[in-house]
Write a structure and sequence with these properties.
This protein is α+β, with helices and mostly antiparallel strands and 156 residues long. It has helices at 8-11, 28-40, 50-88, and strands spanning 95-105, 111-128, 131-136, 141-143, 147-151. It starts with 7 loop residues before the first helix and ends in a 5-residue tail after the last strand.
Length: 156
């Protein structure tokens, strides 16, 4: 007695379409889906070479390690920015000097640029991207990297 041959082609359904991520970067889930699709759709008379499979698994492992390193670097950068903000918070209440450029018109009406040294006390510090900004008592905001002098409030 023999079993009837099932027609596998008629029972085949297309996989559900999933939304492709908008970014061009490939993550490990996408890589695994591609690998599984490749394995399930390979020609049974000519299966994938073991060298190819090992190579793809090594690529998958490298991808995971690179993602892990990327997350670690991102965390390290956030910690560094938070540390910089804490470091520069010691400027609050101190008198700082910085140079600013002012544009004035001379007698002939031409613009003249001059550098002026200004002094004000620091009211607060904030992070703006990778820069640390000092909010000053004169209403101006200056990058801490542009400060030329720092004094305690009592010094004049």
């Amino acid at each position: 007695m023999t079993d009837p041959i099932k027609n596998e082609a008629s029972s085949y359904q297309l996989p559900e379409k999933t939304k492709v991520p908008s970014s061009n970067s490939m993550d490990k889930d996408m890589f695994m889906k591609i690998l599984i699709a490749q394995l399930s759709n390979q020609d049974p008379t000519a299966p994938m070479e073991d060298k190819e499979f090992i190579s793809q698994m090594a690529q998958f492992s490298s991808l995971e390690q690179m993602q892990s390193i990327g997350k670690g670097i991102e965390t390290m950068m956030l910690n560094q920015h938070a540390g910089a903000l804490m470091t520069y918070s010691n400027l609050i209440g101190k008198s700082v000097s910085y140079e600013s450029e002012t544009v004035t018109k001379d007698a002939s009406g031409a613009d003249t640029t001059s550098t002026v040294k200004e002094t004000a006390s620091v009211l607060s510090v904030k992070r703006d991207g990778v820069d640390i900004i000092a909010e000053l008592s004169n209403g101006k905001s200056v990058s801490v990297y542009d400060l030329t002098e720092i004094k305690t409030k009592e010094e004049k």
